[in-house]
Amino acid sequence: MRRSRNAKIIATLGPASSSLEAISSLFEAGADVFRLNFSHGSHEDHRKSYDTIRSLETTFGRPVGILLDLQGPKLRVGKFSKGKVTLEVGQKFRLDMDETLGTAERAPLLHPEVFAALKPNTDLLIDDGKIRVHVLDCGKDFAETIVVTGGVLSNNKGVNVPDAALDVSPLTEKDLLDLRFGLQLGVDWVALSFVQRPSDLAEAKKLIAGRAFVMSKLEKPQAMDHLDEIVELSDAVMVARGDLGVECPPEEVPSHQKRISRVCREAGKPVVVATQMLESMITVPTPTRAEASDVATAIYDGVDAVMLSAETAVGEYAPEAVAMMDRIIRHAEQDLHYQQSRMHERRVPEATAADAISAAARQVSQTISAASVVTFSSTGLTTLRAARERPTVPIIGLTPRLDTARRLALVWGVHSVQTQDCHSFREMVDTALRVSCEEGFASVGDALVITAGVPFGTPGATNILRIAWVE
To answer: Which CATH number fits domain 84-160: 2.120.10.30, 3.40.309.10, 2.40.33.10, 3.40.50.2000?
Structure first.
């Protein structure tokens, strides 16, 4: 199952894609990684999806990545005595810690961290920004507001605080239970929601303890103030445009997306763009031209992966959405402008042997028109370095560890393969030649550029470059 593109596709599973047949069709259409969204569904639902995905690996002979997406701290208004109220523009509306059912004049907001962060003359957004209220006065357990944008407000709608960094852990009690469950299953990536500052990653990384890679979801504008530090501590970053688009003015989201993508590219960390990419395909079989352009723009920016959410979780055209995204990516990557921009964006390598070898591998592979760059890596670091260079040929990521092969399924340009561990340099070269032919990347007379670290198994020790020819 060799993909004819470099950028990867993440597909979210849900009611529309829970059966073996449905998940298989998504994989065959082009999905490389599957997202289990723990904001919805039971543990048993996710266990069944996990088992189904793992069975695909046997069927198709390919490692498949699984991303556990934690819900994170969801701020919500409480319930109303009549289930919903209508708020009129200009009316006063109070939010407080009183658990009494809400009315058109007040509502419970049982989140002391919100009131601790509020200041007068700031705004609160409710129900994904459909309702906006302006804070006139506030204290440790209340906020007197005036309605700026009115509408119908019903039970348990979400609340966003765009102008403040909340003193709240990104891991709730539910998240801790979900994380423990997911790690026991053996997920490959954990997406941490609402990361605002570098310290938000500390608890999660300590709990995960290397059993999965950590992806920071940037959904709060405050994260942009600490972007470099967050990227450095993360294994990957997601531009989560759903909540980010609620908390930021719409005109700011594109520049945030480009800045996050650029910083991740410079740091060699995988970056994912998500939310509403082919939104109209939830209900119709083709996207809008604007949606196609949105996906292509992310590809031109050099991102590692693009993600489908509701399109595959609840959509009526889930396989078609994946197939459409696959076609958009392939067409963009074949564009001369894409290829030229990829060459112009190349960075100066860091002054380390590992970076020098990875940069040389990219240059040598282009100069001799190699069939592929082949990396040997136990942890995946050598392969990640090769991907950061964005070579013009495919990257075959060989690893003795299945968990590493699955994690690399997310990374730009990487065709990951689990192999037997190599104990000598000659064995490494022979394995590279054999696998490249078996996987359809090379044939007799083709050249390969091989990188690895010696001694074998030393994390990050990329210090060998070898050219080999298939005989």
So the answer is: 2.40.33.10
